């Protein structure tokens, strides 16, 4: 295993560095920092496929890893690419630049550091991929079905949530309204919840490997980021600023994260 790590780790580092160097060049050319979101998805899916290709673990387990990581990364990356092309830059990036300017910092230097940090996050969060790719013991069919089934459920749920939101926004009759159709009527952030479930599936795939419990750090880290840093807090702050009392009524009625039947007796806005 250690001999193979000498190949896998440099390959992963090189892949992640290359992807975000390209992403930074695109940002400098277009001025749209949101490109980092799509590149992060492609980079994460790609590193999973790279580890599956180069790893020395059980072939069946590595094939499933490549399908799960590649399928997730491709879908999410394409979805974000479409959104980046059709919508203005995410407001959080202009907020970051404004904060850096207020402190007298070089904006381009700070953004380069931000992109470098994203490359590091790919290496850290891909730990379940590395553990899976190196696990040589024959895969248990039941274990593979459990991990693969959860991944498929989460992938389908995230796809459905993104599709429902896109269609809702595309309808001019919904301008100024809060999306509460489909999964959005049971969770205020079903896309984030399903994204977290994808990472739980990745951790399950790696769990029976030596030191496999370390893979649980990935979904734990994603839960922290989604619930307390970049996901839910920023989205809800933006929605409250743009929708006001309409969104507050939505908050009172619909679960914050885990899908759950909406509260009875709370009227829809």
Structure description:
With 269 residues, this protein is an all-alpha fold. It folds into 2 domains: 1-137, no CATH class; 140-269, no CATH class. The chain contains 11 helices and no strands. The protein has helices spanning 2-30, 35-54, 59-86, 91-102, 107-125, 127-133, 141-170, 190-207, 217-228, 232-243, 245-253. Helix 7 packs antiparallel against helix 8. The longest helix is centred in the middle third of the chain and has 30 residues, at 141-170. The chain is globular, with a radius of gyration of 20 Å.
Mean pLDDT score? 92
* Poorly predicted tracts of residues: none
* Computed Rg: 20 Å
Quote the distance from N terminus to C terminus.
57 Å
Care to count the β-strands?
Answer: 0
Q: What's the overall geometry?
A: globular
Q: Supply the number of helical segments.
A: 11
Residues in β-strands, percent: under 5%
Structural class: mainly alpha
- Main beta-sheet annotation: none
Total separate domains:
2
User: How much helix, percentage-wise, in residues?
Assistant: over 70%
Order of helices and strands: HHHHHHHHHHH
Describe this structure in a few short sentences.
The chain is mostly helical and 269 residues long.
List its traits.
single chain, 269 residues, mainly alpha, 2 domains, 11 helices, 73% helix, globular
